[in-house]
Design a protein that fits this description.
By secondary structure, the protein is α+β, with helices and mostly antiparallel strands. Helix content is 24%, strand content 21%. The chain has helices at residues 38-50, 83-89, 105-113, 126-130, 148-155; strands spanning 6-9, 12-16, 19-20, 28-29, 35-36, 55-62, 70-76, 94-95, 123-124, 138-139. The strands form four sheets. The protein has a four-stranded mixed sheet, with no helix packed on it. A two-stranded antiparallel sheet has the order 3-8. Helix 2 packs parallel to helix 3 (105-113).
């Protein structure tokens, strides 16, 4: 598992089809108004789902974003539900179908109603985060309009602090 939507099987890297997942460096706000690393949690959720299990991916072709990566519909061996659908159902991915039918819309609506994963707090859609759109819509059960500025400052920190365990040295 590389991140919340990417896994490697042998020498092939797949991005899970039909979903948008927080990037590793994305922050979200929890139901107590504390920021948390939802991108790391999304990766950990995928690792938990796949841990020690046989995974099979149906290859849908090259990823238009990254030519060395493939798009895949990936499932745990013997299961009928895709990993994409499980991540949406657990609230750690958004449905991103181009068509109005959206395979995972019902799963996303249920996760939102049940305040699962990302939906328990406040966040911006991962595609908005990647694009640096600080004015995108806030999503989730804990978004308070009277705290808009503070929420956006927490979701898009100006000065990212490196963890103590990160020791990057070199000439700049």
């Amino acid at each position: 598992v590389r991140d919340g939507s990417t896994l490697q099987l042998g020498n092939v890297t797949y991005r899970l089809d039909g979903i948008d997942v927080p990037t590793i460096d994305q922050f979200c706000i929890d139901e107590h108004a504390d920021s948390w690393t939802c991108g790391i949690e999304a990766r950990d959720q995928l690792a938990k789902l796949t841990g020690g299990k046989q995974i099979r991916c149906d290859d849908l072709g090259p990823d238009p974003s990254y030519k060395k990566r493939r798009i895949g519909v990936c499932k745990i061996e013997g299961e009928t539900t895709s990993l994409s659908q499980l991540l949406v159902r657990n609230g750690f991915a958004l449905n991103v179908e181009a068509s109005a039918s959206g395979r995972f819309q019902a799963d996303e609506a249920r996760a939102k109603d049940d305040r699962q994963g990302l939906w328990k707090g406040c966040f911006v859609a991962p595609r908005e985060f990647r694009a640096g759109k600080k004015d995108g819509p806030l999503l989730g059960a804990a978004c308070r309009s009277d705290r808009d500025r503070e929420i956006r400052e927490a979701l898009f920190p100006e000065d990212l602090v490196m963890p103590a365990s990160c020791n990057i040295k070199g000439k700049y």
